[in-house]
Amino acid sequence: MGKLDLNKKQKKDSLLNTAFDLFITQGINKTTISDIVKNAGVAKGTFYLYFKDKYDIRNKLISHKSSQLFSKAHNAVLANKIEKFDDSIIFIVDYVIDELNKNKSLLTFLSKNLSWGVFKKALINPALDSDVNFYEIYLNMIENSKCVFIEPEIMLFLILELVGSTCYSSILYNEPVEISVLKPHLYDTIRNIIKSHQKPEDES
Amino acid sequence: MGKLDLNKKQKKDSLLNTAFDLFITQGINKTTISDIVKNAGVAKGTFYLYFKDKYDIRNKLISHKSSQLFSKAHNAVLANKIEKFDDSIIFIVDYVIDELNKNKSLLTFLSKNLSWGVFKKALINPALDSDVNFYEIYLNMIENSKCVFIEPEIMLFLILELVGSTCYSSILYNEPVEISVLKPHLYDTIRNIIKSHQKPEDES
Amino acid sequence: MGKLDLNKKQKKDSLLNTAFDLFITQGINKTTISDIVKNAGVAKGTFYLYFKDKYDIRNKLISHKSSQLFSKAHNAVLANKIEKFDDSIIFIVDYVIDELNKNKSLLTFLSKNLSWGVFKKALINPALDSDVNFYEIYLNMIENSKCVFIEPEIMLFLILELVGSTCYSSILYNEPVEISVLKPHLYDTIRNIIKSHQKPEDES
Amino acid sequence: MGKLDLNKKQKKDSLLNTAFDLFITQGINKTTISDIVKNAGVAKGTFYLYFKDKYDIRNKLISHKSSQLFSKAHNAVLANKIEKFDDSIIFIVDYVIDELNKNKSLLTFLSKNLSWGVFKKALINPALDSDVNFYEIYLNMIENSKCVFIEPEIMLFLILELVGSTCYSSILYNEPVEISVLKPHLYDTIRNIIKSHQKPEDES
DNA sequence: TATGAATGAGGGTTCATTCAT
DNA sequence: CATGAATGAACCCTCATTCAT
């Protein structure tokens, strides 16, 4: 990568980082492009060299940040040598919840903007260069388990939406209960969702 | 109610109705107060006699519209003489889903703004005059069933968040599957949630 | 007219006058709406209460200014009791040329934007309240003369375009000759145009 | 011409052609230098190696395009062996009108920017290499005719301005009449202009 | 000669809010 | 209570121009 390309990447990264910081501290609606460029230390026009508008940079951030999160979670699964499928899922969920609990701003940012549609774009068809394809990882996890599942996509969908929406309220507002109280109920429900999508093991 | 009070109520109602129409047709961000007052046929200043700002009128609408929805659903439960608790819950969910499927704009409006926090304000502490206290109804339903539940609030929370977030994606975008395909999975999960919160019947 | 209406008219007039001054001193392209409102002493938003954009106010000015000009010219015809048709036309043209020669900024403004199309809108269907319908006056002048003309509209068109385009160059740049030198050639041509559209007098 | 020079000429020509296309399709005001270089396939900076700004390239195009037009018209005069002076003028005017009628974009471009001043620069002192000096041709035509004219420059001026301004309206908007209806009136007027500038033939 | 990333002043426009009527 | 003209800060975005490569 030449000096020029490096400089370009630095500018773009600076914009992304600054935008993220502003989005989580003062919200997207209240963050202006003027704010972003001022804090990033670039000229206004430069923003438009890299992004279409505020929502373009937001979408790229969602993709990137959620990819990072799931990537870390999956690495932890590997590092801890979790074997069984349902344990892995619970582990990932628990890991993600703990991360979001530590980083509430990230939770605000992601949950307010996340949805299955964005999630698919973000994780299944990663937009950014280095981003990971989490759905593929998920399918591999299923394959490596000895079980067979019906409608694995719906199963993932149910789990993701349930976790995403309940965490938001519980972590940020302790409503209806704080996250530690919610967890057992949540994991119980997740195990039930997995169980009910599992084809009866065909033993012989 | 005097003639003047009636006139006042008409103006306020006109603003509420107009705002709702605009919110669901062009989104909240793109709806201006000018739009609202122009379509409502009142002067700009009048808006500020009744509401603080755009978000004030939005919150009142969320409360009102979700209250209406659950109220209708509950009446249908009574009319259909559903007896068992879990059947009632499924019936209500199914009723609400069908309503939202028929009225996608309402779904967009509610789901984009709904959360357990707002829901509580809306349904548990109804803001508007005629609005119904759904949480009380829910507790009555539990009481009338012969069962005992642990943490009924968490149970309701889990169900509401699960239904809310999955429906949004499924009804509006058929993602990951269309609502008719999703329903059995959803209801299965809901029954599991209920079952796992049910205290072992204490027979004697 | 109430106090409020009067105030409104003052604001609009102030904008029109200021815009005209700026248009003729620094050109339309280089005049910004910020300039106009700043000099008019009103807020930026006020501009948009009365005009759509810069071109809207320009068109209204063209109509108004050319109406004024022709109105003055025609009044001079009456005051000087010019009788014959061709003399009246020459008188009007001469009057207008002298006015434009005295007020070169007005010439710049009008000629750069005038065309038969705009002229028709401006003079034949006067947009502003008090503006005069010059085309009707022209037809009256024909009627009052004892002559009959074929295609009087084309005749007027030829004269107007000829005068408009030659004056611009001659008055502003003395190109190819100064206006006093041009005049006899021009009036000669105009008389020829009139003569060749005149039906042979039917004497008896 | 060396390879490098050829390359240079290609870049300049590409810019000229692209600019012309954009000027006539979307207007000068709405054409940006970015547009031009993007479509021409050269870098932004390259533009400034050949032209001062947008108006510089516009002026060069006006010169070139009008030179081309009159050159073609004059060649047609020669090819058709038109002998008499006034017939030649009418022929040229007619040829030019027909060309502009076939190529309305060119008419828009030229008429919106043409004036005697620009015309002189363009035709009398041709800017571009290959461009023809039409005024010299005109003077030759006069010389070859056996007639003597007073103020031939004014005569040409009157004709050009008359034709230019009336055609614009007639061809583009059919106002006040379509060009075929206008033509006889126009040519009649032109013949009158010529006749009135002709010195009484000095017979002996 | 040629490039094109970077600039940043300044353009048009919107709109929540006020306040004299 | 009701009005709606007026405000003006703040927004997004463009684009001519430069200059290090």
Automatic annotation (TrEMBL), chains A, B, C, D:
DNA-binding region ranges: 32-51
Protein name stated in the entry: TetR family transcriptional regulator
Keyword terms, alphabetized: DNA-binding
Record-level Gene Ontology MF annotations: DNA binding
The keyword DNA-binding is annotated on this UniProt entry: yes
Alphabetized PROSITE patterns for the sequence: HTH_TETR_1 (PS01081), HTH_TETR_2 (PS50977)
Key word DNA-binding present: yes
One of the Pfam families matching this protein, by short name: TetR_N
Stored InterPro entries: DNA-bd_HTH_TetR-type_CS, Homeodomain-like_sf, HTH-type_Tx_Regulator, HTH_TetR
Domain HTH tetR-type: 9-69
